[in-house]
Amino acid sequence: MTGIDEEATKALHGMVPYAETLGIEVLASSAEEVRARVAWSEAGTTLGGALNGGVLMGLADNTGALCAFQNLPEGSAGTSTVESKTNFLRAVRAGHATAVSRPLHVGRRFVVVETDITDDDGRLVARVTQTQAVL
């Protein structure tokens, strides 16, 4: 596992304060792949101590948006999520949830990103596909 990219994390928190609220840490960031994680915390859990699905979706949305942002066509101002689908496959009850986002389609009007979220043992926790409008 790579270390935290402090500069990219600070930039993400500056653009999206909610990412800081969630405690998202960027591990690596490029147009081809964005890696970020969030730590399990009791405040972020649901009944039974599992990390809340909203936390996982927030991680994926922010990681996917950062990936889409890095794939914007020349002259674009930004992106906005217009569709997101999540399949939850297992719970995270300790450690970190780590997201890896990769572009599936980069067009003039939309960027489609797929994000896999894994636990500390590398097991797939969730898969998220989102469409980002190019603004």
From TrEMBL:
Similarity comment text for this entry: Belongs to the thioesterase PaaI family.
PANTHER family in alphabetical order: 1,4-DIHYDROXY-2-NAPHTHOYL-COA THIOESTERASE 1 (PTHR43240)
Q: Which organism is it from?
A: Actinophytocola gossypii
Q: Where is the Thioesterase domain?
A: 48-126
* Keyword Membrane tagged: no
Presence of keyword Iron: no
InterPro entries given in the database record: HotDog_dom_sf, PAAI_dom, Thioestr_dom
Q: Where are the transmembrane segments?
A: none
* Entry superkingdom: Bacteria
Sorted alphabetically, which keywords does the UniProt record give? Hydrolase
| Descriptive protein name | PaaI family thioesterase
The uppermost taxa in this organism's lineage are: Bacteria, Bacillati, Actinomycetota, Actinomycetes, Pseudonocardiales
